[in-house]
Design goal:
GO biological process, one term: protein tetramerization
Largest sheet: 4 strands, antiparallel
Subcellular location: Cytoplasm
Subunit structure: Homotetramer, a dimer of dimers. One homotetramer interacts with 1 SecA dimer.
Helix content: 40-55%
Oligomer: single chain
Strand content: 25-35%
Mean pLDDT: 87
Main location: cytoplasm
CATH topology: Bacterial Protein-export protein SecB
CATH architecture: Roll
CATH class: Alpha Beta
Radius of gyration: 23 Å
Low-confidence stretches: 1-10, 169-175
Strand order of the largest sheet: 1-4-3-2
Protein name: Protein-export protein SecB
């Protein structure tokens, strides 16, 4: 009977083909690819009044690992620099990465997942690591605020459209 269920005559072959065409997303692995903590003014920074001012820079990068399998690496880079009295109290750099499987998505959907959804999955891991390092470095607790990766991705798409429009407009203006 098991053979009948799997045979094309039973109709299940069509169901299996239909399932294999469905969009498939999964998280395979989340890991720290690179990590750095520096406190260049220690221990003197602990002797002064704390007036921390924090600057955060972030970037994302996605690359195919095995396109046939639908495997992509997404990397979220965070640089957190905190100054006190105009001197760098600490600097944290992290590259939080993940391996994601994306199958049967249209290109725009795949790009959206890689550019917005996957970084959103990675951010809490990076935020926790940064908070732990800062605290273990002897500094006041740092809680990074959530990031709206959807908005950042939309802004990125808009910038790409403007650049593409500007590049197309230049040759017609010169002609």
């Amino acid at each position: 009977m098991a053979e009948e269920k799997n045979s094309p005559k039973s109709g299940n072959g069509a169901a299996q083909a239909e399932q294999s065409d469905r969009p498939d997303f999964s998280i395979q692995k989340v890991f720290i690819k690179d990590l750095s903590f520096e406190a260049p003014e220690s221990p003197e920074v602990f002797m002064r009044e704390w007036k921390g001012e924090t600057n955060i820079q972030l970037n994302t990068n996605a690359r195919p690992i095995d396109e046939a399998a639908g495997a992509f690496e997404v990397e979220l880079g965070l640089t957190v620099t905190t100054e006190s009295d105009g001197k760098t109290a600490y600097l944290v750099e992290i590259k939080q990465a993940g391996v994601f499987i994306l199958r049967n998505f249209a290109e725009d959907q795949r790009n959206h997942l890689l550019g917005a959804y996957c970084p959103n999955v990675l951010f809490p891991f990076a935020r926790e690591t940064v908070a732990d390092l800062v605290l273990k470095g002897g500094f006041p607790q740092l809680l990074l605020q959530p990031v709206n990766f959807e908005s950042l991705y939309a802004q990125h798409l808009q910038e790409q459209k403007q650049q593409a429009g500007g590049e197309q407009a230049e040759p017609t203006q010169q002609a």
